Amino acid sequence: MTNLTITVDEQTLRRARIRALEEGTSVNAVLREHLERYADGREERREAWRRIQDVAARAGFGSGGRELPKREELYDRKVLRNRAGR
C-alpha cells in the first residue's frame, strides 16, 4: 500500500473521526473505500449504460438507426390539430 497525505481543516477531521468511531471504522478506511469506488466508478457507469442499451434494444425501443421526427412534425399530427381546435 502507498501512503497519501491530504489537507483538511481540524473541525472536519474531528467530525469525521467521531463519525468513523461511531460506525466502528476509521477515517483511513472510509477514505480508502471511497477512493476505490471513485477509481472504479467510470467502468461501472459504462457497464450500466451498456446494460440499459441492451435492454432497450431487446425491448424494441430506439429509432433503429432511423432519423427521429422533428419537433414541428410531432406537433403537426392530426390528433393534436383536433385538440387545439376545441
Question: Can you give a write-up of this model?
Answer:
The protein has 86 residues and is mainly α. Helices cover 67% and strands 0% of the residues. The protein has one domain. The chain has helices spanning 10-22, 27-59, 71-75, 78-84.
Largest sheet, in brief, is: none
Task: Give Rg in angstroms.
Answer: 26 Å
Beta content comes to under 5%
Number of helices: 4
Number of extended strands:
0
Cα-to-Cα separation, first versus last residue: 72 Å
Number of domains: 1
- State the secondary-structure class: mainly alpha
Estimated helix fraction: 55-70%
Mean pLDDT equals 85
In short:
By secondary structure, the chain is an all-alpha fold. It has helices at 10-22, 27-59, 71-75, 78-84. The relative contact order is 0.05.
Q: Which key terms come to mind for this protein?
A:
mainly alpha, 67% helix, 86 residues, 0% strand, elongated
How is the topology of this model organized?
Layout: H1 10-22, H2 27-59, H3 71-75, H4 78-84
